Each structure stands twice: as C-alpha cells, then as structure tokens.
C-alpha cells in the first residue's frame, strides 16, 4: 500500500502536567478554622457503667456431646489421643474392626467440645494435643500393646499421647508401658520377691539350732560306741 513520505514519531517521555504544589497559607488557616471538632460527652466514659457481657447459652446438643466426653474419660482406663488424617472408608472400617476385637473403640470428637471439658478436669495436661483433627481410642482395659500393633499398619493415624490408669504418658511412655508384663505376672513376681526375704531369714535362724542338734547327736553316738570313761563293764547274763 501507499505510505506517506513524512511520518512524525514522538520520542522520549511524556510531559508531566501535574506537580505537587503546597497549599496557600490563607487556605491552610481557613481549613484549620473550619475543621470539625466533635462535641465532648457530658459524662466522661470512665464514669459510665461497664456494659454487661452477653452470655451465650449453649444448646442442648453441645451439652449432650460434652457429657458423653466426660463419661468416656470417667469409664475408660485407657484413653489414647491420635492425629487423624484422611483415609479411605474401607481402611477406617478395617481399623475399627481390628481395634474392636481387643475391646478398643474409636471416638471422633471436636476440639471445641473436648477442650472445655479437659480444662475443668484433672486431664488438663492433655490440652496441647488437641490442636488438629483428633480421634480418641478408648478401652475399659489397658490394651496398649494391642493398640500399637494395630496402629503400626495404619500410617494415617499417629499416636500423640495417652492417659492410662489416670497417668498421662507420651508416645514413648506408651511404648514402654506396652513392654511391661501383665498385672498377674507382676503380682507373682512381687509376691515371690517378698516371700524370698522371710524364707532366707528363717533359714538363717534355724541353721544354728540345727547345727547344734547335729553335733549333740554325733557326740551321743560316739559315746555309745566307745563307752563312758571310768564306767565298769557290764556283766554278761548267763543263759
């Protein structure tokens, strides 16, 4: 196509038409005089009564959930706090099935429900564990060994801590507790240890009299065999 012989091309930066300019002195005085000043209250705010805080009443469903949490902590000898991550429903059902075989039940709780309950109970030291999505593994018996065996195959559930027989334990504490012998074995070992000391004492006390009796018996036997010195020999009876 046809192009013009002369083309105007503008180069360089654009001209700046707006610059900051200080306000005129007369206008500054006018703005200061006409500035709005809110009126002062007739009574100072510090002299007014404090507004009452509105107390929000809990609904019945929240109170029901909190009573259920209190009952769980009251009736369970073992309460384990675990971090729960998303997992397939089939894996969750299988985990609950294996835990239920050992009389361990899974409880899903909300932090806004369980935290006020723990804050007013003797389990307040468990509060730092409830910072994410948690579940509770509860049992009326101390089945720590079986619980750890099941959780070993479920990486989505991480044990954070537990309360066993009113004693708060960390994860390492639960592992050490699971390695302890059963209560019956511990009681048998304690009874054996307590019975060992009296038996040893009795044997030590009887050793002296027994040794003295054995020596006297041996002395009497020797006297009977050799005869008493200075004693006349007995006459033989004639038939």
TrEMBL record:
InterPro entries: Ribosomal_uL10, Ribosomal_uL10-like_sf, Ribosomal_uL10_bac_type
One matching Pfam family: Ribosomal_L10
Subcellular location: Mitochondrion
GO CC annotation terms, alphabetical: mitochondrial inner membrane; mitochondrial large ribosomal subunit
Principal location class: mitochondrion
Keyword Mitochondrion: yes
Keyword Mitochondrion: yes
Alphabetic keyword roster: Mitochondrion, Ribonucleoprotein, Ribosomal protein, Transit peptide
Family the UniProt entry places it in: Belongs to the universal ribosomal protein uL10 family.
Protein's name in the database: Large ribosomal subunit protein uL10m
Organism field: Serilophus lunatus (silver-breasted broadbill)
Gene name in the database record: Mrpl10
């Amino acid at each position: 196509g046809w192009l013009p012989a002369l083309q105007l091309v503008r180069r360089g930066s654009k001209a700046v038409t707006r610059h900051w300019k200080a306000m005129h002195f007369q206008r500054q005085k006018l703005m200061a005089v006409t500035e709005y000043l809110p009126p002062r209250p007739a009574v100072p705010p510090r002299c007014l009564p404090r507004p009452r805080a509105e107390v929000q009443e809990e609904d019945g469903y929240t109170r029901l959930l909190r009573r259920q949490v209190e009952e769980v902590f009251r009736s369970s000898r073992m309460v384990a706090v675990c971090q729960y991550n998303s997992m397939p429903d089939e894996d969750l059902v299988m985990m609950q099935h294996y835990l239920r075989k050992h009389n361990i039940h899974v409880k899903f709780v909300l932090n806004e429900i369980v935290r006020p309950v723990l804050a007013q109970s003797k389990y307040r030291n468990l509060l730092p564990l409830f910072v994410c999505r948690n579940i509770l593994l509860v049992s009326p018996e101390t089945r720590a060994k079986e619980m750890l065996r099941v959780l070993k195959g479920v990486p989505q559930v991480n044990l954070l801590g537990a309360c066993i027989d009113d004693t708060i334990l960390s994860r390492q504490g639960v592992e050490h507790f699971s390695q302890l012998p059963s209560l019956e074995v511990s009681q048998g070992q304690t009874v054996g240890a307590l019975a060992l000391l009296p038996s040893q004492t009795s044997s030590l006390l009887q050793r002296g009299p027994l040794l003295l009796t054995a020596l006297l018996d041996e002395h009497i036997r020797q006297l009977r065999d050799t005869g008493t010195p200075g004693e006349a020999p007995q006459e033989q009876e004639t038939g």
